[in-house]
Amino acid sequence: MSSPYRELLTVPGARPFVLAGSVGRMSMSMVGIGVVLLVSAVTGSYGIAGAVAATLSLTYAVGSPLSARYADRHGQRRVLVPVVLANTVSFAALIMCAEFGLPLWTLFAAAAMAGLTQLSLGAWVRARWSYALRDSPARLHTAFSFESVVDEAVFVSGPIIVTVLCTGVHPAAGLVAATALTLVGCLALAAQRGTEPPPVPPVPGTRGGVLSTPAVRVMTPVFLLLGMVFGAIDVSAVAFADEEGHKALAGVLLGCYALGSGAAALWYGARHWHAPLDRRFLVGLGVLAAAMVPPTLVGNLWLMMAVVFFSGLAISPTIIPGYGLVERLVPPRQLTEGLALMSTSVSIGVAAGSSTAGRIIDAHGSQAAFLVPLAAALVAAALGVAGARVMSSGGRPRPQQT
């Protein structure tokens, strides 16, 4: 590990909350696949399984920013403990409804409760970094880069673990493991009181959530479109490997993409940047759009592995300054909520991108489906340019020059 990251982990209390957050975050790449594998095994229908998983995703998009808002107002520990316990009970109910063959509506009800109580734990950990590094903000981009590496590791390893457990042990085993990891990680994070950001009660007279910040209204759809890029790439890559006669190498192909993003995150976080965050974010969006062009032109699996690696290099240098902008622009009393909103926007985008690419694959094949992430990246870049002034000023009037 390069020196900036080694120094980062010497921050008092950093190692325990990083470890707890990493364990608790494993489930974010496991629950969706785990629900599909469990429900499809007991009902015999991938359509029902997909609908149940979609219910969980939609309610997660509603519940995650709300729990983050309460954490900002009342403290992480006071919210983490009851919410994660409710989440554990909800997933246990979902598993039992599936195993005992209860009516289908019970699956949807349990999935809805599980989604409402699912936490965007990466946002909570990033909020802790902001508090821990409040006296050295220059190091915050290194911390956010490190968290992006953790995210990539989770998304590479999580699907493999849950698939092995569901297919090799028991259809419910993957979901049980994901639920246990969430419970252990969240309780361990709640126990770290020294690095917990102090609660900031709402200012009297203020109304609305974090979306009342103009810059957040610009960045939310941009992050959703970035999620569409990720989701569409995943589905298109799997279909491409299948069409090339090497479906078993689909995971390797996706791993090359994640490896590129992880390598870029390590490089990005180790550098000291002078360019402002908003400019770096806009450059990242432009580079990402350009990086989505080569996959639309390649027709060979082995060449595609190299191409998606280089495409992945554009991901982290876009996401990291994006989170940094949110950290800088939202009021401190809404920091966790703002970061959680970006994470849930990405999750919604992933679902939309996967669905859109899947339909195009069915109709026209994987090569055409690679146009979906390209289009999403181009629109994200256009929205970023259109909202550049708002992001650079946070939506506040600039002081008059004299």
UniProtKB/TrEMBL annotation:
Residues 215-402 form the Major facilitator superfamily (MFS) profile domain. GO terms for cellular component: plasma membrane. Keywords: Membrane, Transmembrane, Transmembrane helix. One of its GO terms (molecular function) is transmembrane transporter activity. SUPFAM superfamilies: MFS general substrate transporter (SSF103473). The chain crosses the membrane at residues 31-58, 79-96, 102-125, 222-241, 247-269, 281-298, 304-326, 338-361, 367-388. Pfam families: MFS_1. It comes from the Bacteria. It is found in: Cell membrane. Its main location: membrane. PROSITE patterns: MFS. It is a multi-pass membrane protein. Gene3D superfamilies: MFS general substrate transporter like domains. This is MFS family permease. It comes from Actinomadura viridis.
